[in-house]
Design a protein that fits this description.
This protein is mainly beta and 339 residues long. 5% of the residues lie in helices and 54% in strands. It has helices at 4-15, 181-186; strands at 34-39, 42-51, 55-60, 64-69, 73-78, 83-91, 95-99, 105-109, 113-119, 153-158, 162-168, 173-180, 193-195, 198-204, 207-217, 228-239, 243-254, 260-270, 275-284, 288-297, 301-313, 325-338. β20 (288-297) and β21 (301-313) form a beta hairpin. The protein is elongated, with a radius of gyration of 25 Å. The protein starts with a helix and ends with a strand. The relative contact order is 0.10.
Length: 339
C-alpha cells in the first residue's frame, strides 16, 4: 500500500501524455473548477486560466481574477487522495503540466484535481529547507552575485536610521536607493544618499557573477559636509543559496580619505530552517571592517543581529605607548522585508 500514491501518479502521467501544449486558454468555460488555497485564510473554488514568464493567473469565485508569482509552487491533491508538490510548467484546455520537484513531469486533468495549495516562493526552500533564503542577494550590506529577479524587491533598515530599497527591473538587472533618517526628515541636509545599480547572472550551476556601482554622498559624524563617493565593483559568488562564499573587488573615488581599493570577502552558512550565520569583511586602504551576525528567517522578514569590528589607523601614532590602530566594536541590528 505504501506505493499506491506513486502508482496513482504514474497512471496519470501515462494516461494523460497526449495533452494540448498551448500556454493560454481560448475557451475558459470548459475548464473544470477545483479548490484553490491561496493562503491560510483563503480557500475558494476556482481555476488556473493562464501563465506567462512572470505570473500565474487564477480565476476565483468571489475574488475574480488574481495573479501570483510564476516562482510559486503547488501542493496538488488529486482524486484517490494522492498529493505531490510541483512547479506548474504548462496548461491546456483541460489539463495542467507539473514538474514533480525534479522527479518527472506529469499532466493532470482538471477533473481529477481536488485541491491546489499555493506555495509562495518564500515557502519554497532548497536543500531540505522549507523556507527560502529571501535575502541571498546581500550579506549585511555587501552584495552577492545573486540577482533579485524581475519584480522582486526588498526594503532594508539598519538601526532605524539607514534605509534602502532595491527592486529587480529584469531577471539580471536591479536598482537600489538608500538614505539615512536625516535625509528623510530634513530634505537632504547632512545626508547619506546613494543609488546602486547592479547586474547579476548565473555563470554555471553553483557560480554567480555580477557587478555594480554605488554613487552618492556620505554624511560625516560631525555633519559638517557631505562628500561625494563613487564605487565600482565586480563580484563572484560560489555555492548554493544556503551556503556560499563571495569575493568582491572594487575601487572607490571621492575625496582623499574615500579613494581606495576595496575588497570584501563574505560567507553565509544556513544552520537551520530559520537561522543562518553571516560574515562580511571589508578591506580598504586604511580601514578594515570584520562583521559577524546571525540571520533569522520568517516568511517575508529576515532579521540580522551581529557585531562589527572597525579597525582604523591612529593619527597620533608618534606618541609613545599609543597603539598604531584602534579597533572599535559596533553592534549591528537590521531588518529586511521582501516582496
Amino acid at each position: 500500500m505504501k506505493y499506491f500514491p506513486f502508482i496513482t501518479l504514474l497512471y496519470f502521467a501515462i494516461s494523460h501524455n497526449l495533452m494540448a501544449q498551448s500556454v493560454e486558454i481560448d475557451d475558459s468555460s470548459i475548464i473544470q473548477s477545483y479548490l484553490i488555497q491561496v493562503d491560510d485564510n483563503t480557500i475558494l473554488k476556482g481555476k488556473i486560466i493562464g501563465l506567462n514568464a512572470d505570473s500565474i493567473f487564477l480565476k476565483l469565485e468571489l475574488l475574480g481574477n488574481i495573479y501570483i508569482s510564476r516562482k510559486s509552487n503547488f501542493i496538488v491533491e488529486i482524486m484517490g487522495g494522492s498529493t505531490f508538490r510541483g512547479e506548474l510548467l504548462k496548461i491546456s484546455n483541460d489539463s495542467l503540466l507539473f514538474d514533480m520537484t525534479g522527479l518527472t513531469n506529469v499532466w493532470i486533468k482538471n477533473i481529477d484535481v481536488v485541491k491546489l495549495t499555493v506555495l509562495e516562493w518564500q515557502d519554497t526552500g532548497t536543500e531540505g529547507y522549507s523556507i527560502a533564503n529571501q535575502h541571498k542577494t546581500r550579506y549585511l550590506f555587501s552584495p552577492s552575485g545573486y540577482s533579485l529577479g524581475k519584480r522582486n524587491g526588498y526594503y532594508q533598515n539598519i538601526w532605524g536610521v539607514f534605509n534602502a530599497v532595491n527592486y529587480g527591473i529584469t531577471d539580471n538587472v536591479s536598482i537600489g536607493f538608500g538614505a539615512n533618517i536625516y535625509t528623510l526628515l530634513n530634505g537632504g541636509g547632512n545626508s547619506t544618499l546613494f543609488i546602486t545599480p547592479k547586474i547579476g547572472k548565473k555563470y554555471n550551476e553553483n557560480t554567480y557573477i555580477g557587478g555594480g556601482l554605488l554613487i552618492g554622498s556620505l554624511s560625516r559624524y560631525n555633519f559638517s559636509d557631505n562628500p561625494f563617493i563613487a564605487l565600482g565593483y565586480g563580484v563572484v559568488t560560489r555555492g548554493t543559496e544556503n551556503r556560499n562564499l563571495t569575493l568582491a573587488i572594487g575601487h572607490s573615488t571621492g575625496e582623499k580619505s574615500l579613494t581606495s581599493h576595496v575588497f570584501t570577502l563574505n560567507f553565509y552558512n544556513r544552520i537551520s530552517n530559520r537561522y543562518g550565520f553571516v560574515s562580511e569583511n571589508w578591506f580598504m586602504k586604511k580601514t578594515v571592517i570584520l562583521a559577524y551576525g546571525l540571520r533569522k528567517f520568517d516568511k517575508r522578514v529576515s532579521t540580522d543581529i551581529g557585531i562589527a569590528f572597525v579597525s582604523i589607523p591612529n593619527s597620533d601614532n608618534d606618541i609613545i605607548d599609543e597603539p598604531k590602530r584602534y579597533v572599535i566594536p559596533a553592534p549591528y541590528l537590521g531588518w529586511v522585508i521582501n516582496w
